[in-house]
Amino acid sequence: MKAWIPLGIVAVVFAGALLPLQALINARLGALTQGALYASFVSFLVGTCLLGALLLASRTALLPQAPLSALPPWIWLGGAIGASLVLASTLMVPRIGAGALVCLIVLGQVLGALLLDHFGVLGAQRAADPLRIGGAVLVLAGAVLVMRPWQSA
């Protein structure tokens, strides 16, 4: 294993640990201002400004070598998917809590990843074999245990 991989793993876990805090902050911003859509916009605006500053500081070229019009139209969906996740999180975290929100996001990610891997969408094909499906069932069970839908809030 390369020496930087453990540090990268720690960074990803730390970033993941901050996602519930981001949802809670955005929900509070929405409650104190014009709502979840406004808060989601502000979240993306701040993130865009930060990433723009990092691009400038790193002297990364702002435009790719190929013209943007040459890129496939679906390539722009990444930003739309991210925005929908931030908006959904901002709307739902006050209603279901940070723990349930994260569990449902992880469940959606696992199910989506299994499907994308199984059909080889934009990457190598990996079959959704019984062991991987069993892992998804365990994630589902974990989400149910965290959410406890049988108990009233």
What does this structure look like?
With 153 residues, the chain is an all-alpha fold. It has two domains: 1-63 and 85-95, no CATH class; 97-153. The chain has helices spanning 4-32, 36-58, 77-96, 98-119, 130-147. α1 packs antiparallel against α2 (36-58), α1 crosses α4 (98-119) and α4 runs antiparallel to α5. The longest helix is centred in the first third of the chain and has 29 residues, at 4-32. Keywords: Membrane, Transmembrane, Transmembrane helix.
Q: Top keywords for this entry?
A:
153 residues, mainly alpha, 5 helices, globular
Short account of what is shown:
Keywords: Membrane, Transmembrane, Transmembrane helix. This protein is an all-alpha fold.
Overall morphology: globular
Radius of gyration: 19 Å
Relative helix content: over 70%
Overall pLDDT score: 94
Structural class: mainly alpha
Helix and strand sequence: HHHHH
Strand content: under 5%
Q: What's the tally of helices?
A: 5
Protein name: DMT family transporter
Keywords: Membrane, Transmembrane, Transmembrane helix
Transmembrane segments: 37-62, 74-93, 99-119, 131-150
InterPro entries: YdcZ
Sequence-ordered SSE layout with sheet pairings:
Layout: H1 4-32, H2 36-58, H3 77-96, H4 98-119, H5 130-147
Helix pairs in contact: 1-2, 1-3, 1-4, 2-3, 3-4, 4-5
